[in-house]
Amino acid sequence: MKENALAKISVCIAFECTLVEIVNEYYLSFMEQKTNVLQQIRQAFSSDWARGALPNMPSEWMGFVPTTMLAYECFKDGGLFARRPELEKEACTDIQGRLLCKAFHEKPWKYSFCRIVTRVQENYFEIIDILSGERFELYSRGVEKTIQDLDRSILFGILRFWNGHCWQTYSHLSYYTSFEDYDLLSFAKALDATCTDYADVYRVLDKNLLQFLALFCFAVASKTLHQKQNLGFFQTTCSCTELPLEALSKDFLITNVQGVYRLELKPYPNRMLVAEAFWAPKKKELIVETTTEKLAHKIVLAFQKHGLQIPLEPDFNMGMPMWVAIRSILQKELNTPLARRFAAPKESNESSEDSQAADRLMILLIDKWNSRQAHDIKELAALARIDLKSARAIERALRKQVGGLL
Questions:
Q1: How far apart are CA 234 and CA 245, in angstroms?
Q2: Rg of the Cα atoms in the chain
Q3: Domain 225-318 CATH assignment equals 3.30.310
Q4: What's the burial of 177, exposed, middle or buried (CB within 10 Å: 0-12/13-18/19+)?
Q5: What is the pLDDT of residues 173-204, one digit of tens each?
Q6: How many CB atoms lie under 10 A from the CB of residue 68?
Q7: The overall pTM is greater than 0.85
Q8: Which of 36, 252, 298, 387 could form a disulfide with 263 if both were Cys (CB 3.0 to 4.6 A apart)?
Q9: Where exactly are the structural domains of the chain?
């Protein structure tokens, strides 16, 4: 692969000028002037959630995103490029241009979440798409630059195009130190409840690209750790007509409130390491919730020991940074007892922007606590764009909720 990579890198470099002429100067200009796609993008930027979430983005990101979205809409499977083949004659005026357009027809552009498998050469990598499982070769100066400062195992979000020999990145790329693969599935499910598996995430992304790009707000948010475990929300829901409560009492502390049984796994660790289940006999439903993947496996094994067939893998899971991202970007809450317990306190008359400011402050506080850094609440309040009185109230409430265990 290494020897072939050198030849392919030469091809990639040779196509760079042609790419600008065809994509930026012709097709994207055509879309700006002759279609309403740019207007739709601007409307998306002016939506309520965007006004609250996107100001946190770096200024250079805000410049790249409209271009990224225009290019995606143009060259994706079924995009304007495929629908208007007659435009090629005017766009492709030389053999390089015709070769590049031929490659675009062979393989439409894709947006991918991926990780590096191997760094073959400078700027050249073997990559795996973490959602589809596809492996491919990629030329990217942006990826090379990013891994000089960050670990190679980080997650990337890239818009890529096929040049006939390998894939190349186009425009802005995102990177995430705070998310795991399953976080993206949870984000897609929060956008579209019909999304059921990793393979379906790109269908949701196709209609909600800006929301996925906005995840860059949380690119380097610290994972919340307790006793070296990543904290998050892990949930499994299954039908259950009856439970052997007496037998289960050996492994669970069982209480009954208004006909709903709460089963807490013994020994109940602490306020951060939670493993519990809620059984509603009338609904014939059992909800299992934990705050770590390790506890999710442990509580399921405890149920299985008593003959209950519960999947070992949770059907819904996300880390704390993704939970905050969903609240901030999608303005949605996880309607579960466990998520409500960790939610930042909110006033009944609080606006959407106030809510997002509270979420931003919570991220900053968790980052500081997680890294054992001292902090000035006045400085954090200014960064989160929230008044000092509210910031202090949120800090007190959050400390009380997590028990000072971060």
A1: 23
A2: 24
A3: yes
A4: middle
A5: 899 888 888 899 999 999 998 998 898 999 99
A6: 23
A7: no
A8: 252
A9: 2-218, 225-318, 344-402
